[in-house]
Amino acid sequence: MKKTSLFVFFAFAVALAVFIAYFFYIFKTAVLFEPPVRFSVETGSGLKEIAASLEEGGIVTSDFLFKWYAVFRGAAHRLKPGDYVFSGRLNIPDVVEMLVAGARRDARVTIPEGATARDIDALLASFGVTREGQIENFDFKKIKTDYPFLASALSLEGYLFPDTYRFFLDSSPEAVVGKFLDNFKKTAIPVLEAGGLDNERTFVENVTIASLIEKEVPEYADRRLVAGILLKRLKAGMPLQVDASVCYAKSRSFENCHPLNREDFKIDSEFNTYRNNGLPPAPVSNPGLEAIKAAVDSQASDYWYYLSDPATKKTIFSKTLEEHNENRAKYLNL
């Protein structure tokens, strides 16, 4: 009888431990909000209603645990109505704290280096900063006089400087674009001016070259070499044949662009550097400061060709077409 009781007690203790471990696992499990998720709490909504909506929207892992923690935290009647934006990794305590603090009227948004205007437009819309299409289709000529460096620009592509910003929700596109351009003027212009622009390398050309190497080459030293290759090919009248230009011609974005196929290289677009000699008419991405520095401070070499190893992302350089074709066969199976 005593052995039976001891076994039952032991089994109960194990089951309780497993339950507690599972409870805290679910409780502490963070949800990754990428892209960000918008959530509204209507005025008059109660804890039960809010918890159910949060679980239904995939924002919390359990409405029961959300309600339990809100009561335990003394927050059950302190959840504030408003429009929320959830981003990054958040668990149940994080969400409760956000709802207690109340909806922010601004958002912290990080623009990745190499994002296109279309990418940035979608990202800002997901945070509720602007509406879809407002940035991508923005007529920059409205504010062009405030930024002389846009005098030769065909679009905002290349000048929406990648950085972390704080924007008010439901901002005007003029205010948002102005913030980008102010940062470009403060951060990128001094680097471009320090490069000593000459008749062969205009301001727009440097930004365009930076936009290409931003998408093609990860390492700074290699970026300088590739910038030198592009300049040398331009001077020789050779097509640049940069894959990034094909991606941009294809969709104005780089998401799900690769692998490119034979038909992609035939796209009839002035951005396609396989079909056209010279640089694209405008940048193909919004480069970061390092890429801009590499474009301005290009390095001359004996190389004429390069490719990226898909496995290591390392840039492989070649001096001759024969060597380049051997590398294409070795690294790209072409």
Set out the fold topology.
Blueprint: H1 2-28, E1 31-41, H2 47-56, H3 63-72, E2 82-90, H4 92-101, E3 106-110, H5 117-127, E4 164-168, H6 173-187, H7 189-194, H8 203-216, H9 220-236, H10 243-251, H11 289-296, E5 305-308, E6 315-318, H12 321-332
Antiparallel strand pairs: 1-2, 3-4, 5-6
Helix pairs in contact: 2-3, 8-9, 8-11, 9-11
In short:
This protein is of the alpha+beta class and 334 residues long. The protein has three domains: 27-104, Endolytic murein transglycosylase (Dna Ligase, domain 1, 2-Layer Sandwich); 107-190, Dna Ligase, domain 1 (2-Layer Sandwich); 199-332, no CATH class.
Keywords:
3 domains, two-stranded antiparallel sheet, two-stranded antiparallel ribbon, Dna Ligase, domain 1, 334 residues, elongated, alpha+beta
What does this structure look like?
With 334 residues, the protein is α+β, with helices and mostly antiparallel strands. The chain folds into three domains: 27-104, Dna Ligase, domain 1 (2-Layer Sandwich); 107-190, 2-Layer Sandwich (Dna Ligase, domain 1); 199-332, no CATH class. The protein contains twelve helices and six strands. It has helices at 2-28, 47-56, 63-72, 92-101, 117-127, 173-187, 189-194, 203-216, 220-236, 243-251, 289-296, 321-332, and strands at residues 31-41, 82-90, 106-110, 164-168, 305-308, 315-318. The chain has a two-stranded antiparallel ribbon. α2 (47-56) packs across α3 (63-72) and α8 crosses α9. It starts with a helix and ends with a helix. The model has no long low-confidence stretch (mean pLDDT 87).
